[in-house]
Amino acid sequence: MRVLVPVADGSEEIETITIVDVLRRAGAEVSLASVMDGRRLEITASRQVKLLADCHIDDVSDVDFDLIALPGGLPGAEYLRDSQALIAVLRRHIEAGRRYAAICAAPALVLAHHGLLDGAATAYPGFVDQLPHPRPQQTVVIDGHCITSQAPGTAIDFALTLVEQLYGRAKRDQLAAQMVAD
After folding, report:
1. Is 89 helix (H, G, I), strand (E, B) or coil?
2. What is the arithmetic mean of pLDDT over 30-59?
């Protein structure tokens, strides 16, 4: 399975690294792609952790992915929202009927903002009112091909849910047991 995780300055590091780590443990080929201007690959995450992306969004604009997963964080989610290249990739991906996911501020600031979220979803509590059909009491929401989650504290459950959507329940359970997560 091929997965795209776009990042920018201010992306939430726990969410970003958890998504990448858990999906790679499952066997996915994950591309961490910067959306920063100047094709800059090094980003400074929301808590000043430096991350080095595998590539720039322009390098993967014509690649078909099985899943695109957006981390939250500020101003990271705003950079993702404002990346025309990423939004073009997302639109093409969603129109092809493929899975997509977002956590924290990204469901509201990226997906809802661009009209890419029409079903039930959740987000960070401060952004949940910007969702068209919010489910604030749920930590992870699956609606069709869209998976959303709330915050850094729900990142492992979110990432394991992504594994389940791509590889099935047995793989999720196997990884959860290895990671001592339930």
Report:
1. helix
2. 97
